[in-house]
TrEMBL record:
CDD domains: GST_C_8, GST_N_GTT1_like
Domain GST C-terminal stretches: 91-208
Pfam families, alphabetized: GST_C_2, GST_N
Organism: Lichenifustis flavocetrariae
Upper taxonomic lineage: Bacteria, Pseudomonadati, Pseudomonadota, Alphaproteobacteria, Hyphomicrobiales
Name of the protein described by the UniProt record: Glutathione S-transferase family protein
Source superkingdom: Bacteria
Length: 215
């Protein structure tokens, strides 16, 4: 049964929080947006730093629980609404692979991409959190080849995380648009909820810029 506890998503448009909002919509979950105008510095306000001292979105509260970090939020919410079918059950054979790919993004993909973009060496193999950039990309592309989604025909919350991430990474040319990546992003962006939230984000971002300019 859906939870009766309130869910609040701390949110700014065109951020990692966008994917969490899409997930909530896909889950059919009731939630409230607590919008922060980053252009006006609201994510650095004392009130929000009390929620997340890093000053970053997304963050959610669910009753008395506070959850930050993308992988944790996606996992938490998808498990909270099992009737939506976006999280494999604990005894499902793909539960382990699902968790692997839910956390591979933050643990390996983002550090690898940032190091590559900043033209930094990943460090010694024993110290690097991801190994090598090429190794990360090879693992991703091999998984996407099982398509159409990360786990064949089965669409999960992990696909919402990766679909949103790869949409941004390809748009900014931070990862090569190999055919499996390009096809995966196209399928993700064709989802009606994705298009609707992206349009809402564009409108909200414009409003925030105008408000910040007015002071």
């Amino acid at each position: 049964m859906p939870t009766a506890e309130p869910i609040t998503l701390f949110y700014s448009p065109h951020t990692r929080a966008t994917g969490v909002r899409i997930l909530l919509e896909e889950l059919g979950a009731p939630y409230t947006l607590h919008v922060l105008n980053r252009a006006a510095g609201e994510n650095r306000s004392p009130a929000f730093l009390a929620v997340n001292p890093l000053g970053k979105v997304p963050a959610i509260t669910h009753g008395k629980a506070l959850v930050t970090e993308q992988g944790a939020i996606y996992t938490y919410l998808a498990d909270l609404f099992p009737e939506a079918g976006l999280a494999p059950a604990f005894d499902d054979p793909i539960r382990g692979p699902y968790l692997r790919w839910m956390f591979f993004y933050g643990s390996c993909m983002e550090p690898a991409v940032v190091d590559r973009f900043m033209e930094r060496e990943p460090g010694p193999q024993a110290m690097s959190p991801y190994g090598t950039y090429d190794g990360v990309m090879d693992a991703l592309i091999d998984q996407l080849k099982t398509g159409p989604y990360l786990f064949g025909d089965r669409f999960t919350a992990a696909d919402l995380l990766w679909g949103m991430a790869l949409s941004w990474l390809t748009a900014f040319k931070l990862v090569p648009e190999e055919p499996p990546v390009r096809a995966y992003v196209k399928r993700f962006q064709a989802r009606p909820i994705v298009a609707r939230i992206n349009a809402a984000d564009a409108e909200m971002a414009t409003e925030h810029q105008v408000a910040a300019a007015r002071g």
